[in-house]
Amino acid sequence: MSVEDGGSPGLGRPRQARWTLMLLLSTAMYGAHAPLLALCHVNGRVPFRPSSAVLLTELTKLLLCAFSLLVGWQAWPQGAPPWRQAAPFALSALLYGANNNLVIYLQRYMDPSTYQVLSNLKIGSTALFYCLCLRHRLSARQGLALLLLMAAGACYAAGGLQDPGNTLPGPPSAAAAGPMPLHITPLGLLLLILYCLISGLSSVYTELLMKRQRLPLALQNLFLYTFGVLLNLGLHAGGGPGPGFLEGFSGWAALVVLSQALNGLLMSAVMKHGSSITRLFVVSCSLVVNAVLSAALLRLQLTAAFFLATLLIGLAVHLHPDS
Question: Above 50 in pLDDT, residue 2?
Fold first, then answer.
């Protein structure tokens, strides 16, 4: 699959093997995120400030990028430092920051099941911006594959996992607080549409930026995560009273931060050498990892919806050329 088609670049066998390994690692880290967060819970709640975890993740990515440049893993460009090329990454950081905060506010205007199902519309918005901004056309097979990914995500969110003690459909977390009716307010629907549009735009804009600039990936990441740290530092400082910066952190929480930081770096490589479409397949395939880990670690039961979602994802991968 070519970069233009939304897949991996044309590589020799050894490099193709490394590319495949990178995609598999990213899929595993995406899928492990929610189960690892669940293992952090104390009395059913996350004991630390989410903004602290996000800030630490951005800081870890920044330090890893700086380290790779310092030790020479990636060459520093010759001549004067290209600081002017850093400015466009401020928009990427702003879009990602806005999206991360929208996720929190969306929960006020709809139930979790509705959010999980409708948020799969971001697959469509990403494909739309991919075609408009990068001027690439998706074939009928590729379009059908993305529709299958949307259907798989909706199917999984609607009931792919179930708590053995909960007979209600939907996410297992719904049982702990009692049944919550499916609902979404008009404002919630508008915010959800905005969330999906920003999600697609941020992904495609960052891909376009990374491919147009002839700079080492580590340096581009250095620019991006510098703005990300500054933005999240401001959000954390303005977040009001709450637990201390590292209060409530455990070994599981540290693993969440490290895995998310490494996954962010892997995804930046996908955006640089692959495409936003490849990223969509990674995120969708991670649902399978998420379900298996949830069943193994949290003792949740896999339902028929999970196996249907897995089948749809498999068909989507098969339909997408050379995926």
Answer: no
Q: What pairs with residue 184 in β-bridges?
A: 110
Assess if residue 103 is contained within a domain. Answer: yes
Q: Is residue 134 part of a domain?
A: yes
Q: Which amino acid is at 106?
A: L
Any domain includes 249: no
Token look-up 């899929």 returns 27
pTM: 0.81
**How many domains is the chain built from?**
1
Residues 272-287 have pLDDT tens digits of 988 999 999 998 898 8
Residue 245 located in a structural domain:
no
Torsion from C-alpha of 297, 301, 303, 307, nearest 10 degrees: 30
Tell me the two tokens of residue 66: 């700086």
Nearest C-alpha neighbor of 184 from the set 101, 235, 117, 242: 117
Give 233's contacts (C-beta < 8 A, 6+ positions apart): 55
Q: Give the SS3 label for residue 47.
A: coil
- Return left, alpha or beta for 6; rule: phi > 0 is left, psi -120 to 50 is alpha, else beta: left
Q: 111 and 180 in contact (C-beta within 8 Å)?
A: yes
The torsion angles phi and psi of 42, rounded to 5 degrees, stand at: -125, 120
Tell me how crowded residue 14 is: count the other CB atoms within 10 A of its CB.
8
What domain range is 282 assigned to? 96-161+182-216+275-322
